């Protein structure tokens, strides 16, 4: 079916595949070859992507957005082919559980002069500080960052990354319970953050959150679930400065009460979850 579709859509610019369990590596490679103008490719939950497809990706010179989420068979050096994509702006490899530091560091080394502004590596649990530090090469070009659920990254590496990449707009560091404000203080220098996920970083203190209120005024979506020091008073201060805040997750924040919904600053469309 995909081969037939591929032959009849030579001008296709965007393609998304969710759970294509019957499509093999060679067919995906041919699909890339048949669509040289394609700018967006998303493949999720495929265990059959392998060497042939990854090598063929090097020919997709117009590809701007590439997502290969939950594709656990990606584990070889062939991923370096992605580093040959001159137009690439967004790369997502979430939950590709066999990726290692050697692979990611080699990939980012080849991409350091690219147009890449968005990187998502959440759930790649084999990664560690080496991969985090390799992201520093993108500097202030980096606008979106996802490093959730990577237990071996440290405060030192996160601090170095956030100090170097201070132009971030979207950040997801959720479920990294090992992190503290020692690593995250530099996050407060990214004053234009609009989407922030700190879910499960329960070691953050009231001092950090108070500084966060002063630092951020452009938040639109925030998740501070399971951050135990979050309370009504802090939320009131945060909401008074972030008038565009639309979504707020506070699951597990036992000091937050339903009274927060009665405040004048919360009645203008803020969606609360988990209070």
**Considering DSSP H and I runs of 4 or more, what fraction of the residues is helical?**
25-40%
Order of helices and strands: HEHEHEEHEHEHEHEHEHEE
Question: Mind telling me which CATH architecture of the domain at 194-275 this is?
Answer: Alpha-Beta Horseshoe
Cα-atom Rg, whole angstroms?
20 Å
Looking at CATH, which topology of the domain at 194-275 would you report? Leucine-rich repeat, LRR (right-handed beta-alpha superhelix)
- What structural category do the secondary elements indicate? alpha/beta
Specify the biggest β-sheet.
11 strands, parallel
Cα-to-Cα separation, first versus last residue: 47 Å
| Sequence stretches where pLDDT stays below 50 over 5 or more residues | none
CATH H-level superfamily title of the domain at 194-275: Ribonuclease Inhibitor
Number of helical regions: 9
Determine the strand fraction and express it as a percent band. Answer: 5-15%
Averaged pLDDT = 91
